[in-house]
């Protein structure tokens, strides 16, 4: 039973790895970004929506950046969808007054409650929006001045419903934690989003730094708050209705990645749980649709990608015990472990996707790849926390949309001194600590039986949970 469970987990990881290999190979055929020139002739009316909730450290710079965008002011409206209950309200009010004096059409919209959280705020603002196109930015983003002129051009095709830009990173060099996050996001945008778009598969609005055709939002049923990933949910509903999406990787919109472990964990928990909720909601509709098998298959990989985490936990828990059984009772046999080695093919897909993403984005990509082993270990280390998120989604447990704290970090860490910082770590952190100890014992077993071929994998498991435990302790210390 242990061997069978381990084999099933390895098979699942292999399948998802093969999908990454397919994405990587298709990227290799188109390994240069297509540049997009600003379109000065297409100037439809645009509404920029800025959903905020207690963003006092970043709200001002976001409003300044959006109000400074190069676009005719008579065709631009800015909606600040402010659900805050702290000093953010006063900061926004001052900024609104400043820009109104410069003849910027900017509205400060407040609700009586946070019904529907971000999805509810976006839907509420849509009722008052005057634009035919809706651009959305989270509080920690800084759109460049030519953003609208570059991203509006694809909308000349009336079938295009959404255009997404690539995320950049304002604070990627701040710490090991921020570097790891930036590394993973680069692969998502440069490989997953881009290749799926090139191959005619479904892609997603990433919640920010994208523009919607208003009629597309309305045709797809509007923003809905029954999942924690309202962006993924609306993206699939719109594309199932026949709308085309476009991803423009050459347009970068810089933003913060979470500077502390709690913020990162909150973000990953929300993304994981929301993706599983969306999969449960929309996978049946996807497979009942008249979309091609390629779109259905790749869409399934995208919607269920986070389900790899339970299988990672299974592999982590059973790897050393299987080697113990092999040496003590003589089973499983060598052939079994040879077959399990096929999982390296899946690992190759994950590795190549990250290699190609760094190569297409950065001139110093070779040196940047040195962080890959740590990134791989850290991805495994998140498995326990994300397992809780998956369990809640499968049980149908509802939870609030918890915002990721933003600290206006642009190179020097100061998160711990802000009012949004929390040094408490969740209970799951103790399980992560236990798994680090457990993996350490596994290393001892492997060394005792001299199973040297298995040692790198066990060290990878140990490194992942030790790294997350390290970040947890740094959270407590506020460093």
Description:
This protein has 18 helices and 7 strands. With 479 residues, it is α/β, with parallel strands linked by helices. The chain folds into 2 domains: 2-28 and 306-477, no CATH class; 46-294, Spore Coat Polysaccharide Biosynthesis Protein SpsA, Chain A (Alpha-Beta Complex). A 7-stranded mixed beta sheet has the order 3-2-1-4-6-5-7, sandwiched between helices. Helix 11 packs across helix 16 (383-395). The protein is globular. The model has no long low-confidence stretch (mean pLDDT 95).
Attribute tags:
alpha/beta; Spore Coat Polysaccharide Biosynthesis Protein SpsA, Chain A; 479 residues
Task: Write a compact overview of the structure shown.
The chain is α/β, with parallel strands linked by helices. It has 2 domains: 199 residues, no CATH class; 249 residues, Spore Coat Polysaccharide Biosynthesis Protein SpsA, Chain A, CATH 3.90.550.10.
How can the largest sheet be summarized?
7 strands, mixed
| Name of the CATH class of the largest domain | Alpha Beta
Q: Which structural class best describes the helix and strand composition?
A: alpha/beta
Shape: globular
Number of domains: 2
Annotation, overall tally of beta strands: 7
**Secondary-structure element order, as H and E?**
HEHEHEHEHEHEHHEHHHHHHHHHH
Mean pLDDT: 95
Uncertain regions spanning at least 5 consecutive residues:
none
How large is the radius of gyration? 23 Å
Helical content (DSSP H or I, runs of 4+): 40-55%
């Amino acid at each position: 039973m242990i061997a069978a469970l381990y084999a099933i987990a390895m098979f699942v990881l292999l399948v998802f790895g093969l999908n990454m290999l397919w994405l990587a190979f298709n990227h290799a055929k188109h390994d240069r970004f297509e540049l997009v020139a600003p379109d000065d002739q297409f100037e439809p009316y645009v509404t920029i929506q800025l959903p905020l909730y207690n963003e006092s450290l970043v709200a001002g710079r976001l409003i300044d950046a959006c109000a400074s965008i190069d676009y005719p002011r008579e065709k631009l409206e800015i909606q600040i969808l402010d659900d805050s209950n702290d000093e953010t309200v006063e900061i926004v009010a001052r900024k609104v007054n400043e820009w109104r004096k410069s003849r910027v059409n900017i509205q400060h919209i407040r609700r009586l409650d946070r019904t529907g959280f971000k999805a509810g705020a976006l839907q509420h603002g849509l009722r008052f929006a005057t634009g035919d196109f809706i651009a959305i930015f989270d509080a920690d983003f800084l759109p460049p001045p030519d953003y609208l002129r570059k991203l509006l051009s694809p909308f000349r095709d009336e079938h295009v419903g959404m255009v997404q830009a690539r995320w950049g990173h304002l604070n990627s060099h701040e710490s090991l934690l921020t570097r790891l996050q930036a590394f993973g996001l680069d692969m998502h945008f440069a490989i997953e989003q881009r290749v799926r778009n090139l191959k005619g598969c479904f892609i997603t609005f990433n919640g920010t730094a994208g523009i919607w055709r208003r009629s597309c939002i309305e045709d797809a049923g509007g923003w809905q708050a029954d999942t924690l990933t309202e962006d993924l949910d609306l993206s699939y509903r719109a594309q199932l209705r026949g709308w085309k999406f476009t991803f423009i990787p050459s347009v970068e919109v810089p933003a913060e990645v979470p500077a502390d472990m709690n913020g990162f964990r909150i973000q990953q928990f929300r993304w994981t749980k929301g993706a599983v909720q969306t999969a449960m909601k929309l996978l049946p509709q996807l497979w009942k649709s008249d979309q091609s098998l390629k779109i259905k298959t790749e869409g399934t990989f995208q919607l269920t990608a986070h389900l790899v985490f339970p299988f990672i936990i299974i592999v982590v828990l059973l790897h050393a015990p299987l080697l113990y059984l092999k040496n003590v009772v003589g089973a499983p046999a060598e052939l079994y472990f040879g077959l399990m080695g096929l999982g390296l093919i899946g690992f190759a897909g994950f590795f190549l996707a990250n290699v190609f993403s760094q190569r297409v984005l950065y001139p110093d990509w070779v040196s940047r790849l040195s962080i890959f082993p740590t990134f791989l270990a850290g991805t495994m280390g998140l498995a326990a926390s994300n397992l809780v998120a998956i369990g809640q989604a499968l049980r149908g447990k509802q939870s609030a949309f918890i915002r990721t704290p933003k600290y206006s970090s642009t190179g020097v860490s100061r998160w711990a001194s802000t009012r949004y910082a929390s040094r408490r770590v969740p209970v799951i952190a103790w399980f992560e600590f236990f798994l680090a100890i457990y993996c350490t014992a596994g290393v001892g077993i492997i060394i005792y039986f001299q199973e040297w071929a298995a040692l790198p994998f066990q060290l990878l498991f140990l490194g992942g949970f030790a790294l997350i435990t390290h970040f947890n302790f740094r959270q407590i210390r506020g460093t």
